[in-house]
Amino acid sequence: MSHTLGVRQAKKQKTRQALLDAALGLLEEQSLSSLGLREVTRAVGVAPTAFYRHFQSTADLGVALVEEALGSLHPMIAGTVSAAGDGDERIDRAVDLIARHVREYPAHIRFVARERNGGVQKVRAAIAEQLDRFTGEVKAELAKHPESAGWSDDDLLMLAGLYVDQMLMTACNFLEAPAEEQDQVARVATRRMRLISIGSRHWLG
Amino acid sequence: MSHTLGVRQAKKQKTRQALLDAALGLLEEQSLSSLGLREVTRAVGVAPTAFYRHFQSTADLGVALVEEALGSLHPMIAGTVSAAGDGDERIDRAVDLIARHVREYPAHIRFVARERNGGVQKVRAAIAEQLDRFTGEVKAELAKHPESAGWSDDDLLMLAGLYVDQMLMTACNFLEAPAEEQDQVARVATRRMRLISIGSRHWLG
DNA sequence: CCATGCAGTTAACAACTGTTCTCCGTAAGA
DNA sequence: TCTTACGGAGAACAGTTGTTAACTGCATGG
């Protein structure tokens, strides 16, 4: 087990997390490339220069946020594909999992959706890498199911990517939709994934 | 026919276009919410105050860019779905059309992809509106084909949205991929759309 | 218990931002 | 031809930005 880190490092990680949280909050109404270092420290209530003790640029902060945001997204994606039940039942469960996750960590998925094609190269690369990892995991999960017997690795990866992209877009739609339209978003997302699932069942032959 | 607009208005629209072009160029390496008014005018070689003669904020400039970027995207989407030939042939032609369009207007699609979930509300709304319009057109085109007989309006709209999103993501993948991987992007995109097409053929019943 | 190291502060820097006001030249319309 | 309207220039404004330097207080390890 890890040593109980000293009071010193504990305080440091505390303000570091405060910086990350404040940044995530500010990023709900702007993109990373316009996020100022002073803006973040001001929101935390700390001197601007303290920022450099933790990150050497806002781009670095962004990369750290990618870890945090997609780290929380990780178990969701795993649960999405490995859910039990038959095809349609699994899809319903997956969409529900996505909706629940969006309600719990809205800022996380907003950040990922926004910066996936955002203006900061390093952050884009970090997101792409993590998303590729997810796609690989989904592919592995897909390979376990009997329905995908005889599939080539390439085709499995293609299907996994399709699902991952679909999940992210669905999450984004949940985010943008007002409360009274959430059900409709869920219905459309379900039908989309069902169509993909049908397509995959008739892919071979 | 429209009157030949005077020398005055011609000059005005010329610098207006110069502002749009310069902004589009600058936006390849940052997002709209960090684009400065002075930055744009400096790139054009015009006084900062001249900006206000054309737009009242960079957000307004962004909305104008949406019109331009998705205006150029319009014929492509139309051609994508209405292409002749059988299913697989149509898909190949569509992917090729997308690749060609990306090579011709890279900045346009980069802008749309980046600001679709970007930090500027008005621009996001403008993009969403235009994309919805496109989805409607694709749906109308889909309805003409005999394969979609018996489909409900809702399902047609769902499928059209799936295709539109897929096109945009494909375009984005072309943009990010280096020259030697373009073929692979095309192959994956083709297989994705083929799977969707297969799914749509088995959707009913 | 004391010396060292480090998180955080304060002050200052040049550079940059959006915006306003005043002015200039000239195309447009009478 | 004369007046007006308008695209654009110029200067100035208060406020902001990232970054540096030297400083302070305190937890840490010997």
Written overview of the protein:
Two copies of one chain form a homodimer. Chain A is mostly helical and 205 residues long. Chain A has one domain (57-201): Tetracycline Repressor, domain 2. In chain A, 73% of the residues lie in helices and 0% in strands. The first copy, chain A, has eight helices and no strands. In chain A, helix 1 packs across helix 2 (37-44) and helix 4 (87-104) crosses helix 5. The termini of chain A are far apart. The model of chain A has no long low-confidence stretch (mean pLDDT 94). Chains A and B meet through helix 5, helix 7 and helix 8 of A and helix 5, helix 7 and helix 8 of B. The structure holds a DNA duplex (30 and 30 nucleotides). Chains A, B: Residues 13-73 form the HTH tetR-type domain. Chains A, B: InterPro entries: Homeodomain-like_sf, HTH_TetR, HTH_transcr_repressor_FabR. Chains A, B: Keywords: DNA-binding. Chains A, B: This is TetR family transcriptional regulator.
CATH superfamily of chain A: Tetracycline Repressor, domain 2
Q: Report the portion of residues of chain A in β strands.
A: under 5%
DSSP summary, beta strand count of chain A? 0
Extract low-pLDDT stretches of chain A: none
Biggest sheet details of chain A? none
Our Rg estimate of chain A from Cα atoms comes to 20 Å
